[in-house]
Write a structure and sequence with these properties.
By secondary structure, the protein is of the alpha/beta class. Among the domains are: 38 residues; 95 residues, no CATH class. The protein is built from 16 helices and seven strands. Strands 1-2-3-4-5-6-7 form a seven-stranded mixed β-sheet. Strand 6, helix 12 and strand 7 form a beta-alpha-beta unit. It is globular and about 70 Å long. The relative contact order is 0.12.
Amino acid sequence: MDNNVFEQLEAQLDSFDVYERRAALERLCELAGKGEIELPVAGDFVNIHCHTFFSYNSYGYSPSKFAWLGRKQGLAVAGIVDFDVLDGLEEFYAAGDLLNLKCCVGLESRVFVPEFADKEMTSPGEPGITYQMGVGFCRADPAGQTGEFLADLKRTAQQRNRELTGRVNRFLSPVELDYEADVLSLTPAGNPTERHLCVAYSRKAREIFTNEAERKKFWVEKLGLEALGTQMAEDSGFLNLLRAKTMKRGGAGYVQPDRGSFPKLAQMNQFVRNAGGIPTHTWLNGFSDGEQDMERLLEVSMSSGAAAINIIPDRNYGGGDGEDKLKNLYEVVELSQKLDLIIVSGTEMNSPGQKFVDDFDSDELKPLLAACKQGAEILYGHCLLQRAGEMGYYSAWAEANFSGAAAKNEFYEKVGSVIEPRNKGVLKSVTSEDQPETIIGKVTG
């Protein structure tokens, strides 16, 4: 096919218009069906933690775009995770069904952990505060108090960002943002993040200081001599420096969060369970004082329902030297397996330069592939049964049929490994009256 047409269709997948995205994906699938685009069979690699443009993706990927690229690269399972919203859920599942790509959907936010109130965990410089996730959501609009909790996550996050913009505006004047015009325009559904703010400030500075020398002088004055070593554009070095100097701890716009700034860990975990998902602990790199006491931290998280742990496998992620990072990574995976926690892995792609998928062919990450794929298949199996008949990991059916996490993980992994999206019709014969072994017989027979 004409390369220009192909490139235009792929670019259209990132349109803010959902109908344009759907039309482009359908056309690409049509071309693939005709053999004009070759799509590989699914391999073993997984990425079930990729942000989309509904929070921030550094490449501007929509849920449809990530699904398409995941299918092109032969991912075994693909998953999206956005901050404080489930806005991409329906689109991603629809894309997965169209592409025959195994999919799952998650959400990430920040929480307060009372038991670790004086210790740093995954949010540097913020004792008691950590990132927490839910994975395996199957509805974007949960009802009642669960839906109110979800709406409040987005509302409070956006209020924090508006207040942050006001403080940073004062510091960076005359480079000042209009939140509606300069920031909300960067998102399709009104959920900008700090990273959107950084992009907007970079672009605003180019508007005001059209002369490169003057712009560089401005940034050096505001950010320090470190700015001389950046490209002063939307590259990772400059955007990370801008964020550090204006929005993170010690920055001009930073305000230290207190205990009431975020929901408690137990509240977040309960919301995830009520919404049909699986509460997921997040791990950074093992160097913070909180993560030095990892068994205790996981004990606290699991006591309110966490059944999974998120890792970012690439050894270049986090602080410390390479050998220590890799050692810590291996140790947390080993501990998680001992506790029968589901491994959630991915590259995030919410900072320029991050990989599409972790290099599981490398000597360092190859030993982790089996655990990462197993975790992805468990989550996909959960999503299949939760979507088909609310028989997911924390459903009443699962609670009645499994006495422990190990047996539960084995069952959902089996379901996830044998059913492709195009064959999910086999689940129509499954009912909540069936025992686990009966379901396995139905889906494998």
